[in-house]
Amino acid sequence: MQSYWIYIGIFLVVAVAVPIVAVALPALISPKKPSRRKEEVYECGIETTGNIRVQFKSQYYIYALIFLVFDIETVFLFPWAVSLGELPLFAVIEGVVFIAILFGGLIYAVRKGALVWY
Amino acid sequence: MLVSVLVFVFASLVTLGAAVAVVTNKNILHSAFYLILAFVGVAAIYVMLEAPFIAMVQVLVYIGAIAILIVFAIMLTRRLMSKDMDQKNAQWIPSALGSLTLFVVLGWIVYTAGWPAQEGAMPAEPISQLGQDLLTTYLVPFEIASVLLLAALVGAILIGRERETRSAE
Amino acid sequence: MADLINLIEGWITNLLLGWGASEELTLFLLQALGSVLVVIICFLIVIALIWVERKLAGRIQDRFGPNRAGPFGIFQSFADIIKIFTKEYVTPKGAEKGAFNIAPVLAMASVLAIWAVFPFAINVIGADVHVGVLYIVAVSAFGILAILMAGWSSNNRYALLGASRSVAMLISYEIPMVVSLLVPVLLAHSMKLSVIVKAQQPWWYLLVAPTAALIYLISSMAEIGKAPFDLLEAESELVAGYHTEYSGMKFGMFYVAEFLHQFTVGALITIFFLGGWGGPLAMRWPILGVIYFYGKSFLVYLVISWIRLSLPRIRIDAMLDLNWKFLIPVSFVNLVAVAVADRVMLELDLATWMYVGVMFAVNIFILLASLFLAGKSKPVVEREKFPPRPVAVPPGTES
User: Fold this and answer.
1) Prediction ipTM score
2) Are residues C57 and C142 in the same domain?
3) Number of structural domains, chain C?
4) Per-residue pLDDT reduced to its tens digit, C95-114
5) Which of A101, B35, B107, B117 satisfies CB 3.0 to 4.6 Å to B146 for a cystine?
6) What is the pTM of this model?
7) pLDDT surpassing 50 at residue B130
8) CB-based contact (8 Å) between C242 and chain B?
9) B-C interface: how many C-beta pairs under 8 angstroms?
10) Which chains touch C (3 or more CB pairs under 8 A)?
């Protein structure tokens, strides 16, 4: 394990510790006067009724699915982009084919109206 | 080195503990968050194995996309949000047997693999090496991955659309 | 005075070694010191930025901005800090305590963690990892997670709706962001940030890949979640979005994270498109490089502020359309064009200025062509039209 990953580890610990301290410090000095009214959920001044965790429309799920596909695509494209200089010209074409196949998928999604927000 | 052993033990404990919590937790959304913690632990172990690329992909894909997908999926299914739900259903015995078989097979593979390790230093540009391998030796899997992703995309859209037309009726 | 930072580092190293500390411990302490320093500088920058932002907002929108606390109101941020530190934490009833408290910390940490890999100058580099670009993208995933956790744990409908709406937006805009990030990676043939910065020393990638820079700017503005993409806190619809129920410093963490994220995006654009620490004499005096780096980041920050203070909010469906039907296709086409042009010109072995010129022309052509095509095209699916409704109908007269 190279030393810079140790640095990242230390950095992550610091990056988590500093916000924790910043959040914990006011807890010591700030007033604590809880009341029932204060802990009410904010909703236009009217008491909340029913289950808060409302059911979602499937639109969110479809967006997340399409995002997942393109996310994995970009992961594959990173090594391609890095090694482009040391590869023959047809390697570029291979990457282009890879992109083109998924580009077809995007066009399909748009044509099917899957990306229309209702 | 002692420190790396300690870090490894910590990461493994976090991973395993979170994994146990995923299974035992009653609230399914809590399970999802524990699953994310398990992913983080696995990513840390990848980094310790000097496979930072895999570690970053683990975080990017599993936490950045799949975890969010899971959370959205949970939010879609309102009934599962209730805390007093039974954790077992009618199929728990077959699925337990299946999991157990999978565990035995995987354990057997891990035990008998022998783990061939290549001697020598890491290449100077490991990512570049990876890209070259992907585009020469493993070109067909690379392109098939694209087709597979396309199939997943089309399937997702078809299933999603179907649900919407049904609810409109 | 050749190199102030390494001089100090060497001095501390010798001091610690002189006290009998082992080499590993010295390295550990130095790294800890470095990371604490970077984090503290981040916080100080945010304190200054909040004042700058408010003053700028005042000027642009024809107001005064803070002008009471101290000359030009420069102590306003400090007054705000003191105030927010003494605020009571209110946890709404029915909230999921664990996730509710973790979310603000996670939001802040995910932005701070990006700073671990930055090259501040030619020899002042955080962690120079092989996967620097991927690290940045991967770490940002935790920010999305934090929003989701905050929205869900608040036990508030507005927070939940705001969170899931903004997560849908954030993940959408991550695609053009990452794809346009691939262009600098492709041009530098490396994911190491130090190599990317070094590769653009005479010619910044802003000149080589202006379209990628523009797409990156737009999509990272969406990632910050400020206007015109501030749907997560569309106050007329969602109160304050995912942090509706937060108070005191927990809210402050989200607020600070947002400001720091904007500055971080400035730093990222500086690294990927504006030559990082590059500038006159930066090679000889690395301390100048650090100043250039922060200066350029600040300039990009001001540009983002200028845009966000000038434009109104975009409706969510228009925003998602902009992403899926314009930015993503254009960024992919641009990536392919840059890859082909880069490879072909590598074969031809052209002079650098010709290479830059051709790349610039290709990029601008793609931008103009796609803008032209987008202007010509009709919406693929028409939105449902509702008949006009009278404001009030007397009872019994409804048809």
Assistant:
1) 0.86
2) no
3) 2
4) 777 888 888 899 899 999 89
5) A101
6) 0.87
7) yes
8) no
9) 59
10) A, B
The verdict on C266 and C195 lying in the same domain is: yes
Q: Quick check: C286 and C6 in contact, CB under 8 A?
A: yes
Length of chain B, in residues: 169
Query: CB neighbours (10 Å) of residue B163?
Result: 15
Rounded Cα gap, residues C292 and C278, in angstroms: 7
Looking at the structure, tell me whether residues C155 and C267 fall in a common domain. yes
Mean pLDDT score of chain C: 82
Name the residue with tokens 């002008």. Answer: C67
Q: Which residues of chain A are under the pLDDT cut of 70?
A: 1-2, 37-58, 114, 117-118
Q: Do C380 and A16 lie within an 8 Å CB cutoff?
A: no
* Token code pair at residue B29: 């959304």
- Does C291 reside within a domain? yes
- A-chain residues within 8 Å CB-CB of C135? 8
Same domain, C72 and C155: no
Neighbours of C358 (CB within 10 A): 17
Measured between beta carbons, the chain A residues lying within 8 angstroms of B125 are 82
Which fold does the domain B1-82 belong to in CATH? Four Helix Bundle (Hemerythrin (Met), subunit A) (1.20.120)
| Residue A28 Cα to chain centre, angstroms | 33
| Selected residue of A6, A52, A112 to mutate for chain C interface (largest C Cβ count, 10 A) | A52
Residue ranges covered by each domain of chain A: 3-112
Residue C119 three-state SS: strand
Å between B10 CA and nearest CA of chain A: 13
Give the architecture (CATH level 2) of A3-112.
Up-down Bundle (1.20)
CB C107 within 8 A of CB C253: yes
CB contact under 8 A, A52 and C86: no
Are C48 and C131 contained in the same domain? no
Spatial separation of the C-alpha atoms in residues C234 and C191, rounded to whole Å: 36
Asked if C145 and B126 come within 8 Å (Cβ–Cβ), the reply is: no
Which of chain C's residues have a Cβ under 8 Å away from the Cβ of B75?
152, 164
**Closest by Cβ to B52, choosing from C129, C141, C152:** C129
Q: Domain segments of chain B: what residues?
A: 1-82, 126-169
Supply the pLDDT for residue B168.
43
User: Are residues C207 and C342 located together in one domain of the fold?
Assistant: yes
Query: In angstroms, what separates the C-alpha of A27 from chain B's closest C-alpha?
Result: 25
* Residue A117 CB neighbour total at 10 angstroms: 17
Cβ within 8 Å of A, B 18-77: 47-48, 50, 52-53, 57, 60-61, 64-66, 68-69, 72-73, 75-77
pLDDT tens track for B133-166: 888 888 888 888 888 888 888 888 887 765 554 4
pLDDT at A49: 61
Q: Which domain holds residue C8?
A: 1-86
Nearest Cα neighbor of C154 from C244, C251, C230 is: C244
Q: If pLDDT is split at 50, 70 and 90, which confidence band does B13 have?
A: very high
